[in-house]
Structures are given as structure tokens and as C-alpha cells.
Design brief:
This protein is an alpha+beta fold. It has helices at residues 8-22, 29-36, 40-52, 68-91, 96-106, 112-122, 137-145, 169-177, 210-213, and strands at 56-58, 64-66, 148-149, 158-164, 185-191, 197-201, 204-208, 216-222.
Length: 223
């Protein structure tokens, strides 16, 4: 069945809400305003239009819920974004730290035909350069691999990095320089009272604060 055409603005809202749900954050208008860099009145007006068009609903406590229609659009947009990231990194060799911003420019222009060809090219079970599965997102990693934020672990636990759910290219460059990318293994050497962590990565140690460890999703290997 042919999907109803949505505007770029609507797609940005839907994807932002979907990503918040993926990260187990509560989607509310204030979070959307911050994420999208728009004013609260602009968010209110957009939510009213999208509620009218049956893409979402706003609960009495302010939480935003995607309707089946809105979720379908958001998931397809997220998939097109990830396919664009893989095209950029695996085919033309763009650095993983730059892939997100470039894919933001490409995702809205990918047609269903191109989406299908890219998905066939890369495989439905593959992941984006940051480790997020093409189909299922973070929810799939939590369900199948027991993924949790690194910030939840304790000293002595050994982990494998599954994905880095982050858009800031400088942060991704920072992690790359520390060899903290999907597939890397490390041991939590120390966890401080302020929730900073020291990781043992191979023969060297890495110090990370809570803002960093909350964006790195891992699976436990041992204690």
C-alpha cells in the first residue's frame, strides 16, 4: 500500500519522537524543542497538526505517543537514514563520525525503490556504522542482546560495545580515538561515586563521564 506523503518537517518530528522512545526517554514537547532546535510554540503548533493528521497523540500528562501510522513513517525514515549512513561509509568511505549529518541531508530524498535496493545490498540483518540494527533499532538490541547503557555497569564487568547512539561528530571522533566502537571489548576497571568510569581497553585505560557512558550501549560478557 502506498504511504501517504509527509513533509520534511513532519518526518523530522516523527523520527525525533521515535528515537526518544528507542532510548527509553519520555517524548514531551520540551524535549522535542531542544532536539529540533525550535521554539516551544512551534512544537505546539506542529503537534496539533500532526494529531489532526493521525500521526500522533498527546496524552493528558504531556507524553507524546506515535499512532501506528506515525510509527510506520518514523521507522521507514530511520531505516532510510541508516541506509544512507551505510552507503556513505561502506561505499564511498566517509568517516563514521560524519555519516549522521550527511545522512540527514539524504534521507528525505531516498525513494521506496532505492530503499529496497539498498536494503538488499546491505542485508536486513546488518547495522548502521554506529551499531544500530537496520530493522528494529535499539529495541532489537535490548530484546535480543540484552543491551544496556554502559552507565549501568559496575566495576569488574566485561562488556562488548554494541552501538553508540550519538549524533555529535566530535564525540564520535573522541570515541574512535579511544578505540571505543561497536565490536570493541573492555572491562570496567573502576566506577566512581560521581558515576565517572575507567575502562580497560586492551593495555590502556580510558576515563569517561556519565554523558558519554549513557550514550554507549553494551552487552555484559562476564563479571
Amino acid at each position: 500500500m502506498r504511504r501517504e506523503k509527509t513533509s520534511v518537517s513532519q518526518e523530522d518530528y516523527l523520527k525525533a519522537i521515535w528515537e526518544m522512545v528507542q532510548e527509553e526517554q519520555t517524548p514531551i514537547s520540551a524535549h522535542l524543542a531542544k532536539e529540533l532546535g525550535v521554539t516551544p510554540p512551534a512544537v505546539t503548533a506542529a503537534l496539533k497538526r500532526m494529531t489532526r493528521d493521525d500521526y500522533l497523540r498527546v496524552e493528558r500528562d504531556g507524553r507524546i505517543q506515535l499512532t501506528p501510522k506515525g510509527r510506520s513513517v518514523a521507522e521507514h525514515l530511520a531505516l532510510r537514514h541508516q541506509l544512507a549512513e551505510k552507503l556513505l561509509t561502506e561505499v564511498i568511505g566517509l568517516e563514521w563520525s560524519k555519516a549522521h549529518e550527511e545522512a540527514e541531508r539524504l534521507e528525505h530524498g531516498i525513494s521506496p525503490d532505492v530503499e529496497a535496493l539498498l536494503l538488499k545490498r546491505f542485508g536486513p540483518e546488518s547495522s548502521c556504522p554506529h551499531g544500530v540494527p537496520l530493522l528494529g533499532g535499539l529495541a532489537k538490541l535490548r530484546r535480543k542482546n540484552g543491551a544496556v547503557p554502559l552507565s549501568e555497569l559496575n566495576a569488574g564487568e566485561t562488556i562488548e560495545i554494541l552501538c553508540v547512539y550519538e549524533k555529535d561528530p566530535k564525540f564520535l571522533e573522541f570515541l574512535g580515538s579511544l578505540r571505543l566502537r561497536p565490536g570493541a571489548r573492555a572491562r570496567v576497571h573502576q566506577r566512581e561515586y560521581d558515576e565517572t568510569m575507567t575502562l580497560a581497553v586492551g593495555s590502556h585505560k580510558v576515563h569517561l563521564g556519565k554523558p558519554a557512558t549513557s550514550r554507549i550501549w553494551v552487552r555484559r560478557l562476564s563479571s
